[in-house]
Amino acid sequence: MFDLTSRCTLNSIITWYQEARKWNQTAIPIIVGTKFDEFIQLPIDLQWTIASQARAYAKALNATLFFSSATYNINVNKIFKFITAKLFDLPWTVERNLTVGEPIIDF
């Protein structure tokens, strides 16, 4: 998880991933950007930069990416359903959303 309003947390994803992989090489990586409700208040060019960087990291790590807000329950249920489906090998699909300014879901 990283804070969508704090680029330093986004920049830490690669290090966190490498540390986690030392302990578990089979885990399914999922990247969750939090505070989407605050993120959408940022200038659109900064939103685009953060979204592009997060998508690039997700692609490099073969991870699913969710932008979320616990405050407004944005994508929270989808994240839990996605994790549950992956853990128990259940069929479940989620629609991809790549529109900057909306809560991104990329896989």
UniProtKB/TrEMBL annotation:
The keyword Acyltransferase does not apply. This is Septum-promoting GTP-binding protein 1-like. Keywords: Nucleotide-binding. One of its GO terms (molecular function) is GTP binding. Pfam families: Ras. The keyword Ribosomal protein does not apply.
